[in-house]
Specification:
158 residues; alpha+beta; Aminopeptidase; five-stranded mixed β-sheet; 23% strand; globular
Length: 158
């Protein structure tokens, strides 16, 4: 059985460890920082985002641990005369542990996140997918939008 829920402070150490796993899987090689330094910094970042209410971390649990997660940052928009409070959601760090892939867990978690986004009255959800994950997001209803332009300021380091 899989349980889907919003993460709480007690989940942050496991989420930080999964972030380490995820990034090493995406960009194998020797990390610049040692694991303990990374975990400490990442957990502090997650805690701050949770306490400030800027980040919501979604989890799927099975077999006594977190097997999938999605991080969503709420990004406030500048007030408009017809809508004083508006925001978009930035979805990132979507990761399912290898042994739990192709079971629909990630798909179910994305659906719950999108339902939550609707309840939060977010105007839109954005994600920057990898080439390998593009179809996953398209199945969830994400579409390319030519209205969004991007300019790289600094090269991304994997």
């Amino acid at each position: 059985m899989v349980t889907y829920r919003v993460a709480v402070e007690g989940d942050l150490a496991e989420l930080a460890a999964m972030r380490w796993e995820f990034r090493l899987e995406e960009a194998p090689g020797t990390p610049v920082h040692d694991r303990e330094s990374f975990l400490s910094t990442c957990e502090a970042f997650l805690r701050q985002g949770l306490h400030e209410g800027r980040w919501t971390y979604w989890t799927a649990e099975a077999d006594g641990g977190i097997v999938c997660h999605i991080f969503v940052q709420r990004v406030a928009k500048v007030p408009k005369p017809n809508r004083l409070e508006a925001a978009i959601g930035y979805m990132t760090n979507v990761y399912t542990r290898p042994g739990y892939r192709s079971r629909g867990i990630g798909t179910q978690l994305v659906q719950r996140v999108l339902q939550w986004a609707d309840e939060q009255d977010l105007e839109s959800m954005i994600v920057w997918p990898s080439a390998a994950s593009l179809h996953f997001y398209e199945r969830a209803g994400f579409r390319s939008d030519s209205k969004i332009l991007e300019r790289e300021v600094r090269p991304y380091v994997t």
